[in-house]
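Narrative of activities, Objective 1.

The group set out to show that a structural description can be obtained from nothing but a protein's sequence at a throughput compatible with the screening campaign. Below is one input-output pair from the validation batch, recorded exactly as produced.
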Amino acid sequence: MLTLSPAVRIYLATGATDLRRSIDGLSALVREQLALDPLSGHLFLFRNRRGDRLKILAWDRSGFWILYKRLEQGTFAWPTEERRGPVEMRSGDLALLVAGVDVTHTRRRRWYERVA
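Output recorded for this entry:
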């Protein structure tokens, strides 16, 4: 799996995305719909309409990466709200999402952490 720095943020694009888009199309979505910078080094996640495919767009200072996963059965758990803008998640939640766990049905224990 991915090893992420604590400085890397993870954003989900709510709703369905046409995953035929390439790097340029997805980075345009990040700029226009999410109002974020695709060159920031953060991860941007997109899901198709059926929910069985996922693309992650990432910038690593020398170029873009696209990570793509297709499930053979089932769907990815995704935010149902159709609001505009990104939904931020933690790196641990990303690992659960990619593994097929629905994080909305899990309970996070209370930890002392500073919220920025």
